């Protein structure tokens, strides 16, 4: 059956009156009211949220069928229709804007109407003939928006995260590979954006990998609270109009349908009042994004140039970078990464405001929580794949430039501290900055150490790992101090 509107209509009634609806659509009067009331963004429900509510509706119908609460014929038709929702076959029938009635009532009724009409059609009935399958009495039996929407939102988030983890693992692996590839390349470290002691370019990238790995672990940990579901709580978390066994059976079916390890929450009131679980995931996504922003900023800095910047690494050239400057190539993937991450940080602010805005037995701000978290996961997943494949994987080192900075950093003098003391080392740095001469040349002229000691102590590679002081030089300086 086509979901496209036609000139023919059917009449549907609800508690507010009657309306004419296109005859061949699966949605009903409450969806139409929402379409008229909320022409806000033009954006509709995330496909994974639609898939998740299809799973919830199937699980509920399976439980109600087992308990004899909905007859087998209707229940089987509802189950078939719910499976079609999960498959995405009816996505075009979900018409409600993401910004809508509080708690997601409009989205939920859109779901009930679509499944009811499709189930009626399966049974040979006409669209809009709710005597065959009713959106409230059959599809929604024993349910409320107040337990169905938060359950669907949590489940959708778990499902969408399954797409994010491979992208995160791919980035971590690529950064680890660069850490190994660049292990022997020395460069100047920088703190406060000033010269610091030498380090290995590979160490810099290993640290990036460590940050992403830990951010991934934090998302995994925070998502565990999403597995506690309040389905069966009904209107206020007390389970009104539900069979005593419904809750356990419905969630067991949902676990099997979704492949997710979901369990009944120990307090259904908590699951309805609080969105701590969603806030935790959103916060973890924000923290990941802060790391992505930091790393993208670093890549833009160390690839800056090619002639007037750091130019320590070379990013893949993906497109011309200017409409006026010929040959200019910009770091477009780090720029993209930062912009996506900024959006996720902004989404987390919206989530935080919505999470604290719940009153008494229900948080009605769930539609914006769901939209923000799911959008964050989706855009991070898509961005990370591109960032890894088109930036990190193809990144190369400019060894000559790194070597130059390694020898040029005045913080080489830090290695002299154990042998000549901080004050004398500071004098050498001051002279180097004033004259432009290298730390090694000045140390040699002052005859503070032997040539071998200078070569060993001021070896940049030696400075990249913890080392014992050279005994001969340390002993001589100790004797000088005693005199």
What does this structure look like?
The protein has 483 residues and is mainly alpha-helical. The protein folds into three domains: 9-141, Orthogonal Bundle (Fumarase C, Chain B, domain 1); 147-400, Fumarase C, Chain A, domain 2 (Up-down Bundle), CATH 1.20.200; 409-482, Orthogonal Bundle (Ribonucleotide Reductase Protein R1, domain 1), CATH 1.10.40. Helix content is 58%, strand content 7%. It has 18 helices and eight strands. The protein has helices at residues 29-37, 47-66, 72-86, 105-122, 135-139, 145-181, 201-223, 246-258, 268-273, 276-302, 332-355, 366-392, 399-408, 417-420, 422-435, 439-445, 451-457, 471-482; strands at residues 9-14, 17-22, 186-191, 194-200, 228-229, 263-264, 313-314, 396-397. The strands form four sheets. A two-stranded antiparallel sheet has the order 1-2. Strands 3-4 form a two-stranded antiparallel sheet. A hairpin with a 2-residue loop joins strand 3 (186-191) and strand 4 (194-200). Helix 2 (47-66) runs antiparallel to helix 3. It is elongated, with a radius of gyration of 31 Å. 45% of the residues are buried. The mean pLDDT is 95.
Distance between the termini: 99 Å
Query: What order do the strands of the largest sheet run in, or round the barrel if closed?
Result: 1-2
Q: Which structural class fits the helix and strand makeup?
A: mainly alpha
CATH homologous superfamily designation of the largest domain: Fumarase/aspartase (Central domain)
**Level of helix content?**
55-70%
Number of contiguous helices: 18
Could you list the spans in which at least 5 consecutive residues all have pLDDT below 50?
none
Beta-strand proportion: 5-15%
Number of domains: 3
Average residue-wise pLDDT: 95
Classified by CATH, the class of the largest domain is Mainly Alpha
Rg on CA atoms, Å: 31 Å
Q: How many strands in all?
A: 8
Order of SSEs: EEHHHHHHEEHEHEHHEHHEHHHHHH
Indicate the CATH architecture of the largest domain. Up-down Bundle
Tell the overall outline: elongated
Major sheet characteristics: 2 strands, antiparallel
The CATH topology annotation of the largest domain reads as Fumarase C, Chain A, domain 2
């Amino acid at each position: 059956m086509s979901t496209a509107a036609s000139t023919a209509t059917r009449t549907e009634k609800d508690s507010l009156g009657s309306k004419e609806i296109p005859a061949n659509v699966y949605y009903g009067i409450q969806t139409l009211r929402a379409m008229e009331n909320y022409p806000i963004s033009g954006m509709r429900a995330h496909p994974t949220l639609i898939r998740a509510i299809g799973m919830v509706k199937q699980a509920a119908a399976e439980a109600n069928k087992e308990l004899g609460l909905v007859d087998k014929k209707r229940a089987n038709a509802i189950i078939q229709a719910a499976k079609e929702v999960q498959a995405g076959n009816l996505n075009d029938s979900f018409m409600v804007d993401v910004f809508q009635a509080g708690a997601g009532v409009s989205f939920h009724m859109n779901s009930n109407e679509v499944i009811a009409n499709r189930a009626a059609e399966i049974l040979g009935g006409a669209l809009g003939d709710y005597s065959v399958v009713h959106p409230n009495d059959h599809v929604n039996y024993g349910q409320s928006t107040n337990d169905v929407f938060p359950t669907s939102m949590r489940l959708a988030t778990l499902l969408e995260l399954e797409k994010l983890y491979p992208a995160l693992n791919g980035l971590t692996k690529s950064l680890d590979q660069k850490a190994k590839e660049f292990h022997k390349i020395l460069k100047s470290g920088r703190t406060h954006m000033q010269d610091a002691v030498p380090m290995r370019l590979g160490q810099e990238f290993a640290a990036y990998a460590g940050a992403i790995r830990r951010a991934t672990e934090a998302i995994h940990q925070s998502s565990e609270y999403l597995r506690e579901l309040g389905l069966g709580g009904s209107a206020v978390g007390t389970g009104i109009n539900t069979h005593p066994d419904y809750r356990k059976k419905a969630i067991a079916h949902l676990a099997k349908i979704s492949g997710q390890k979901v369990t009944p929450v120990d307090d259904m009131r908590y699951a309805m009042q609080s969105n701590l679980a969603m806030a935790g995931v959103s916060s973890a996504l924000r923290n990941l994004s802060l790391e992505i922003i930091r790393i993208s900023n670093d890549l833009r800095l160390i690839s800056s140039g090619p002639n007037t910047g750091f130019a320590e690494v070379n990013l893949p050239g993906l497109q011309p970078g200017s409409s006026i400057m010929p040959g200019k190539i910009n770091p477009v993937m780090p720029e993209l990464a930062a912009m996506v991450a900024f959006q996720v940080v902004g989404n987390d602010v919206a989530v935080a405001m919505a999470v604290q805005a719940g009153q008494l037995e229900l948080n009605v701000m769930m539609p914006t929580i769901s939209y923000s978290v799911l959008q964050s996961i989706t855009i991070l997943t898509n961005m990370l794949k591109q960032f890894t494949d088109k930036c990190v994987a193809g990144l190369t080192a400019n060894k000559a430039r790194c070597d130059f900075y390694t020898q040029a950093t005045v913080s080489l003098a830090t290695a002299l501290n154990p042998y000549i003391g901080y004050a004398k080392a500071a004098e050498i740095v001051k002279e180097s900055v004033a004259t432009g001469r290298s730390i090694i040349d000045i140390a040699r002229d002052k005859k503070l150490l032997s040539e071998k000691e200078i070569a060993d102590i001021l070896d940049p590679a030696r400075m990249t790992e913890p080392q014992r002081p050279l005994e001969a030089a340390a002993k001589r300086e100790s004797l000088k101090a005693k005199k």
